[in-house]
TrEMBL record, chain A:
Main location: nucleus
ADF-H domain segment(s): 3-135
SUPFAM superfamilies (UniProt xref): Actin depolymerizing proteins
The protein, known as: Cofilin
Family under the similarity heading: Belongs to the actin-binding proteins ADF family.
Matching InterPro entries: ADF-H, ADF-H/Gelsolin-like_dom_sf, ADF/Cofilin
Compartment(s) where it occurs, according to its Swiss-Prot or TrEMBL record: Nucleus matrix
One GO BP annotation of this record: actin filament depolymerization
PROSITE patterns per UniProt: ADF_H
Gene Ontology CC terms, in alphabetical order: actin cytoskeleton; nuclear matrix
Keywords, alphabetical: Actin-binding
Entry keyword Repeat: no
SMART domains documented for this protein: ADF
Automatic annotation (TrEMBL), chain B:
Species of the source: Entomortierella parvispora
Family annotation (PROSITE patterns): ACTINS_2 (PS00432)
Disordered: annotated segments: 45-107
Name of the featured protein: Actin-related protein 4
SUPFAM superfamilies per UniProt: Actin-like ATPase domain
Bias (Polar residues) ranges: 59-77
Entries under SMART domains matching the protein: ACTIN
Highest taxon above the source species: Eukaryota
Length: 136, 472
């Protein structure tokens, strides 16, 4: 259990499985419910570029996200699932605290994530930064 | 499993550091009360518990304690009980000759806790902080702090609120268990939780992974936090903190022939020109060395806050000499303008080898803060390092020198490595000073947190070792 005791709403893992197995989604954005008691799916988008994904990350709100990351190597296409903890410095301390202490609840439930990105500004979640982390 | 379900009652949040104690209610964004952790006491005469007639003086002292406590019926009982316990802990050897002060065998009389109490001059009052190197050393004094925080400052009934406290990342099992016992046995809290201060600071900064750099009065530590867990082997710490810097300022003054006379000794002073000998009438107030030192340190603390600054890049004497001087006046009226000296002291944090004067053998091994951070990250798994370097979180009062964060960022980027460094230093001083308290406050106020408390029932079933299972 996460340190905050926050739990997952039912749909969270199902959406992720659809993304992983059926490629039904390109990315999923998760957030905490308004009463801060559980993590819910904010948006599951079936197609979208990386820039469209970044545009979904609010400037002063925290989020979790999963993105089905495609990239090309000389010997062919690759595909990895990336998990994001989005926590901009402009977000309220209370929000940051709840999101970071609840991350484990979601992260541990998602099987098959290749890498995990902790993002506090757009630089840290930029396409190139993530690509570099994947290929490291 | 019995869980604690009283969400509607605010939790108490307590963070006892070496220098400051912060106490308040969960859900609030600043502690209700911040007071010095150091406590004062007057040793009872050594023969006090040998002869029957001498016992009288001790009794009156004890009555003082219980009378000055708030009127909760149960509380004064507690205090009485504790005083008796305290006596048992420090048995007086029979036939001991007059024991010198500070000797453990002397009995302590009434305790003085809180800013107003300990800074008030009393002959023979000793001053000491019960925390050393982040660990609790003096349980008697610690209980005084808990008493003071709950009964005198927050004025609450401990049996009605759950309690969450913060601990240092290298705290021992024994200490946590003892704290748990204290909370349940003596204060009768209905529920209890211990959180690691570095984790709380990292979370409050929005980072489940972080390298938490905490520089306080007593020491400076770097603690890697990953996924909300402390990586113990990466913890780096050294006892280079604000107190060492203050000591150096004091030496600076003394080597310039200036005696730092604290407020309590000054009866009357007249204004003097810059750099002139002070014209001052002193009071005849004999005090213990520990009290005198604390009062001197307060003056130096003001000095550090008012004039000290960190050079933004490498220390360069020429460059520094061209920076504006800043004036400062000591309590006895001596005043001067400070130039290079005000940069030299905080520089010790970055370059102790060159700037720490007359180091003790222990101090000779100090390394600069950038090196300490680097060593900490390097002792963690190689996969973690990019993330850790990418979220260095700065906390602690000693990091509040102007220019500190800029300089640290600059230094971390000058060490050769391939990582991108991001330094998070909250601009808000409350957040920087009370980062871990704030984290504890938020987490304790969450409706979902109630399942994590150690409840009274669980404690009764398992005993104090439950703390090592529930609070990791």
């Amino acid at each position: 259990m996460s340190l905050s005791g926050v739990s997952l709403q039912k749909g969270c893992v199902e959406s992720f499985t659809e993304l992983k197995l059926k490629k039904a989604h390109k990315f999923i954005i998760y957030k905490l419910s308004d009463d801060l008691k559980e993590i819910v799916v904010d948006k599951a988008v079936s197609a979208g570029t990386y820039d469209e994904f970044l545009a979904e990350l609010p400037v002063d709100q925290c989020r979790y996200a999963v993105y089905d990351f495609d990239y090309t190597l000389p010997d062919g296409e690759r595909n990895k699932i990336v998990f994001y903890t989005w926590s901009p410095d402009d977000a309220k301390t209370r929000t940051k605290m709840v999101y970071s202490s609840s991350k484990d609840a979601l992260r541990k439930a998602l099987q098959g994530v290749a890498i995990e990105i902790q993002g506090t500004d757009l630089d840290e979640v930029a396409h190139d930064t993530v690509l570099e982390r994947i290929r490291r | 499993m019995g869980t604690y379900g009283g969400d509607e009652v605010a939790a108490l949040v307590l963070s006892v550091g070496h220098t400051w104690t912060q106490a308040g209610y969960g859900g609030e964004d600043t502690p209700k009360s911040i007071f010095p952790t150091s406590v004062g006491w007057v040793d009872l005469p050594a023969e006090a518990d040998q002869g029957d007639d001498a016992d009288n003086s001790e009794d009156t002292q004890m009555q003082d304690v219980s009378q000055s406590s708030p009127q909760h019926g149960a509380d004064s009982n507690n205090i009485h009980k504790k005083d008796a316990d305290g006596g048992d802990l420090n048995p007086q050897p029979v036939g001991a000759a007059p024991v010198p002060r500070k000797n453990k065998t002397t009995k302590r009389g009434k305790y003085y806790v809180g800013d107003g109490e300990i800074s008030c001059w009393r002959p023979d009052m000793e001053i000491k902080s019960p925390i050393k190197d982040g660990l609790i050393e003096d349980w008697d004094a610690l209980e005084q702090i808990w008493d003071h925080a709950f009964l005198k400052r927050l004025r609450c009934d401990p049996t009605e609120h759950p309690l969450i406290i913060t601990e240092s990342s290298w705290n021992t099992r024994e200490i946590r268990e003892k704290l748990t016992e204290l909370a349940f046995e003596k204060y009768n809290f209905p529920a209890f939780f211990v959180a690691k201060d570095a984790v709380m600071t990292a979370f409050a900064a929005g980072r489940p992974h972080a390298l938490v750099v905490d520089s306080g009065g007593d020491m400076t530590s770097v603690v890697p936090v990953y996924d909300g867990y402390v990586l113990r082997k990466g913890i780096m710490r050294q006892s280079l903190g604000g107190d060492v810097l203050s000591e150096q300022v004091l030496n600076q003054f003394q080597s310039n022939g200036i005696d730092v006379v604290p407020q309590y000794l000054v009866a009357k002073k007249s204004p003097v020109e810059v750099g002139q000998k002070p014209i001052v009438t002193l009071r005849d107030r004999p005090a213990t060395p520990s009290f005198h030192k604390m009062m001197q340190m307060r003056v130096i603390h003001d000095y550090k806050e008012s004039v000290c600054q960190v050079a933004e890049s490498t220390y360069n004497e020429q460059n520094i000499n061209s920076r504006p001087q800043k004036p400062f006046e000591l309590p006895d009226g001596y005043n001067s303008n400070f130039g290079a000296d005000r940069f030299k002291v905080p520089e010790i944090m970055f370059n102790p080898k060159d700037f720490l004067k007359n180091p003790t053998p222990e101090q000779e091994n100090f390394v600069g803060l950038p090196k300490l951070i680097f060593n900490s990250a390097q002792s963690c798994d190689i996969d973690f390092r990019p993330t850790l370097f990418g979220s260095v979180v700065l906390t602690g009062g000693n990091t509040l020198f102007p220019g500190f964060a800029d300089r640290l960022h600059w230094e971390l980027n000058s060490i050769p490595h391939s990582y991108k460094v991001k330094l998070h230093a909250p601009g808000n001083t409350v957040e920087r000073k009370c980062g871990s308290w704030l984290g504890g406050s938020i987490i304790a106020s969450l409706g979902t947190f109630h399942q994590l408390w150690i409840s009274r029932k669980e404690y009764d079933e398992t005993g104090s070792s439950i703390v090592n299972k529930k609070c990791v």
